[in-house]
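Team,

Forwarding the record for the chain on the shared tracking sheet. I've put the sequence and predicted structure together so nobody has to dig through attachments.
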Amino acid sequence: MLKKLAILNLFLAAACSDGDNSAVPSWFREAGSVVDSGTFGQATVNNLGIQNGDQSYVLSLANRFAEEVPDMVNFRFDSAELDEQARAILRQQAVWIKQFPEVRFKVYGHTDAVGSSAYNKQLGLRRARAVVAYLGSQGIGGDRLEAVVSLGKTQPLVVSQGRERQNRRTVTEVTGFVDRHPTVLDGKYAQIVYREYVNSALPTTAISGLAVSGGGE
């Protein structure tokens, strides 16, 4: 038994002397030696979000956004240039996004499977940044938008090794609130509903007024 313990101690000492304690079981390491991978505290943040209603509100808005406006635009092969169809979709997104100044969004860029992973990573990011830039030109603040790259090889809509247009895309999603956002979960949600109603009625009201005053078809 003593011989086995001696061998174990020599093994542990050798592992530590190399400056790499990854092979040492956690119960032999000093407290705090296991470095957090970045997820520490996420459970608490998530629980608080559920309790105060933030998480459910974000999820509700995310579902509404996906249902009420197109959340995806497509690109030509090996291109990050927005065509007219893409710009038309992004204008619809911008109108919707302006209704909720307290909400933050992310744009995920994707590619098809043609080309190297490194090249596709950069191409996906260029596509996401092109969308963010265009939404910015439509009056959406940069503090509310973030461009994120995601390879088409890892998240294809259509499983294909070829030039699949549906995989060459960006996706815009609701992801949370801007910093120091005014809370909307304290009985004031009706104000947001009313704000949407007024904004949506403005174009109709203006058109009706012109029709009455003009007297023509």
